Amino acid sequence: MFRKWHLFTPGPVPVAPQVLLAGAVPTPHHRLPEFSALLSEIRRDLQYLFQTRRPVFFFASSGTGAMEAAVANLFSPGEKVLVVRGGKFGERWGEIAEGYGLLPVYLDVEWGKAVQAEEVKSRLDRDPEIRAVLVQAHETSTGVKHPVEELAAICRDKNVLLVVDAISALGVYPLPMDEWGIDVMVAGSQKSLALPPGLSFIAVSERAWSRVEKATLPRYYFDLRREWKAYQKETTAYTPAVSLLLSLQAALRLVRETGLEKLFAHYALVSEATRRAVRAMGLEVFPEVPCEALTVIRLPEEVDGGKLTRLLRERYGVVVAGGQGKLRGRVVRITHMGHQSPLEVVLALSALGLGLSEMGFPVKMEEGLAQALAFIGERGKEVYA
Ligand SMILES: *Cc1c(COP(=O)(O)O)cnc(C)c1O
């Protein structure tokens, strides 16, 4: 059959053909001089993307690897960290911290809500032993955006490190690492970087680097001290994911050509258009403070989310994500990340409307689509000028 899949999952995301093709060449050797030239271009462009003057390191792992690297490099056994836990990825910070023998203290946030910066501040006031705050910029499981800028200010004031999982946020909305004073920022390739899975990224502020030198947790592959030594010699400590780096070079060139401001404006536009459409259809946007990387939609009580996502996939080739953990079956998640043009989300919304109707829950589809189209048509004049 002439089946075409339209990927709207929050990782993996659609990848531009020229980015894929860039990696489809005979594998270059990673210790040759030409490869050093590639590395220095990539590293410079990553600094642009992270908005930092600090080195950005990468590993051959999924995003979780860089989260693990953050924990293993910054801390010593028994140290206390404050984990913002309002979704599946907040839980993961806690699991990694526990796995490494830290003492995570949890700030539990109701799923769908953003953490209150004030609450973080009062926790830090009450417990001076807390060394760091671990948080997501976008909690991809709920679609929430946490207030990173405010948290950064509080953490600097308290001399506590701020460790941000920006796996679904980097390049989607402004997260100027140096300007805001974010200590550690983590990213992954198959989310906002619009690449296939297999690369993770981490940058560490100067202030946090002194902790990397002193930390006593065990580490080997993820040891940033080894990577830094190699970095200074324009190489990597171990064999990097060579083909993916060729694709990364192409992806970062696209980012540079487009410019961060334009990228941010694109995501703001498409995510707002989607939220307007969802509400006009008579559905509910799940997160209270929604992020721009994806839209999480609450399903009517009676709808079986698993059945719905299967229907959209099998009937229309539209692949959306269901809920994770306690949101299983209760929400659908449509991503705006990756190689997508502005009107593609209309396809996802159309499939959602048709699917819900077929399952006996008709929505006001025409109103929804009209809202999205009007908004994109109007604002697009400026954003895509
Ligand atoms: C996807 C995701 C992760 C996990 O990344 P993997 O690449 O699957 O290891 C962690 N945090 C956030 C916010 C994510 O969106």
Automatic annotation (TrEMBL):
<comment type="similarity">
    <text>Belongs to the class-V pyridoxal-phosphate-dependent aminotransferase family.</text>
</comment>
<dbReference type="GO" id="GO:0004760">
    <property type="term" value="F:L-serine-pyruvate transaminase activity"/>
</dbReference>
<dbReference type="InterPro" id="IPR015424">
    <property type="entry name" value="PyrdxlP-dep_Trfase"/>
</dbReference>
<dbReference type="InterPro" id="IPR020578">
    <property type="entry name" value="Aminotrans_V_PyrdxlP_BS"/>
</dbReference>
<dbReference type="InterPro" id="IPR015421">
    <property type="entry name" value="PyrdxlP-dep_Trfase_major"/>
</dbReference>
<keyword id="KW-0032">Aminotransferase</keyword>
<keyword id="KW-0663">Pyridoxal phosphate</keyword>
<dbReference type="InterPro" id="IPR000192">
    <property type="entry name" value="Aminotrans_V_dom"/>
</dbReference>
<dbReference type="GO" id="GO:0019265">
    <property type="term" value="P:glycine biosynthetic process, by transamination of glyoxylate"/>
</dbReference>
<protein>
    <submittedName>
        <fullName>Alanine--glyoxylate aminotransferase family protein</fullName>
    </submittedName>
</protein>
<dbReference type="InterPro" id="IPR024169">
    <property type="entry name" value="SP_NH2Trfase/AEP_transaminase"/>
</dbReference>
<dbReference type="GO" id="GO:0008453">
    <property type="term" value="F:alanine-glyoxylate transaminase activity"/>
</dbReference>
<keyword id="KW-0808">Transferase</keyword>
<feature type="domain" description="Aminotransferase class V">
    <location>
        <begin position="29"/>
        <end position="324"/>
    </location>
</feature>
<feature type="modified residue" description="N6-(pyridoxal phosphate)lysine">
    <location>
        <position position="191"/>
    </location>
</feature>
<dbReference type="InterPro" id="IPR015422">
    <property type="entry name" value="PyrdxlP-dep_Trfase_small"/>
</dbReference>
<feature type="binding site">
    <location>
        <position position="333"/>
    </location>
    <ligand>
        <name>substrate</name>
    </ligand>
</feature>
<dbReference type="Pfam" id="PF00266">
    <property type="entry name" value="Aminotran_5"/>
</dbReference>
